[in-house]
Amino acid sequence: MCSHEGMDAHETETKNRLSIAKATLVGALAIAGVAGGLVGAVTAVAVDGGTTTVVERAAVPTPAAGARQARPGTTVGAVYAAAAPGVVEIDTSGSSDSAFGFGSQETRSQGSGFVIDRDGHVVTNQHVVAGATEISVQLATGATYEATLVGADPSTDLAVIKVTAPARALHPLPLGDSAAVEVGDPVVAIGSPFGLEGTVTAGIVSALRRQMTSPNGFTIDDSIQTDAAINHGNSGGPLLNLEGTVIGVNAQIQSDSGGNEGVGFAIPAATVRRIVDRIVATGSADHAYLGVQVQTLSAAAASALGLEAGVALASVQAGTPAEAAGLRGATGSTEVDGAPVPTGGDVVVALDGKPVRTADALRAAIDAKRPGDTLAVTVVRDGERTTIDVVLGTRPSA
Question: Domain ends where: 236, 262, 282?
């Protein structure tokens, strides 16, 4: 198995990894061809008892900002009271080509987001606002304002919109330190599943360093897995710790049914901070790009093949910086312990003079660069080390 590089690559080691290729994007509850507003009620049928429960979509009373303050080791209720005023519901409309070939049709979608400053910037998922021509934001108070797209990054599924609400109506939420998160930590998710704004769920951090596949096919590293209930409409909402700081942005679920099954994923705050800062400053978040498919060549596999451990280049894509620099992809593969290993191509062992042993490390090193930077790539080729300078390009947006 190979991974697509760059975030330059999809991780191919399966041990202690989770493939999210079939993960469901949970935010864009698209309602195509609807001229009116969103559905006004959710009907749930109890299959065992034959009863029907209708949950009206009414305004949810939200505590005023500062009514209770979240603090370390506090309750879910305190976190909700402190953070809910900063969580918003996002409704979008746009148009798409009709599936039946009769021109275009109106589309509507709904998701969540959260305020990050009093200038009106709101963070959400890219897939929540993709294709939107009109965006509206409903604050926790129930007040609704128009918003505009500042910028979006499909490679990390993050977007920033700007709402026209007055500063006094905005309640920014602080970004926390996702690197300090540990498995088992309690977490709280707030959002608008199925349009039910102000919904809070709680759980724990189930795992760390998971990988999601972004809307344009690149890898989102270091994702946080949680069992806090996440459903359609939660996308873009915050995942918070018990200190009330945002440690991630809820983005995807793993589900056979399409609904919550206790396996959700959030983009880590470290990625959010880096990408959002770029978007707010420049309107975009370009990523450096090499243009290869790679696979970690473990010490055991390398020893079996008489090679040096590192990152094997499974392929070099045409028209990319890697091809222009003369990097060589594999010409074949050999099975080692039941798994195919690319052979006959370059094995990357260092970048800018620093050893590289995994596809994760290669991806992180490239992502730390900017388009136009020069990267010194040391490879083992035909048993000898050689260093090749590569001028990195800009990652494709699709």
Answer: 282
107 and 230 within one domain: no
User: How confident is the model over 308-361, as pLDDT tens digits?
Assistant: 999 999 999 999 999 999 999 999 999 998 899 999 999 999 999 999 999 989
pLDDT in tens, 374-389: 999 999 999 999 999 9
130 falls within a domain: yes
Active site residue 121: no
Q: Does the pTM exceed 0.85?
A: no
One-letter amino acid at 324 equals A
Residues 20, 102 within the same domain: no
- Asked if the model's pLDDT at residue 63 lies above 60, the reply is no
Nearest-Å Rg of the Cα atoms of the chain is 23
Domain contains 148 = yes
Domain hosting residue 317, numbered range: 288-394
> Into how many domains does the chain fold?
3
Find out whether 254 and 266 touch, Cβ atoms under 8 Å: no
Average pLDDT over residues 136-142: 96
Which residues 6+ apart lie within 8 Å of 3 measured at CB?
Answer: 9, 10, 11, 12, 219, 293, 294, 295, 359
Cα–Cα distance measured from residue 38 to residue 66, given in angstroms and rounded to the nearest whole number: 31
Catalytic residue among 8, 153, 157, 360: 157
Same-domain pairing of 192 and 301: no
Four-point Cα dihedral 27, 178, 6, 29, nearest 10: 0
Is residue 55 situated within a structural domain? no
Task: Identify the active-site residue in 93, 192, 235, 298.
Answer: 235
CATH code of the domain in which 269 resides: 2.40.10.10
Instruction: Report residue 8: phi and psi, to 5°.
Output: -80, -15
Its sign, for the CA torsion 320, 325, 326, 327, is negative
Instruction: Tell whether 117 and 93 lie within a shared domain.
Output: yes
Q: Which of 121, 127, 171, 232 is catalytic?
A: 127
pLDDT tens for each residue of 213-266: 999 888 898 999 999 999 888 999 999 999 999 999 999 988 776 666 789 999
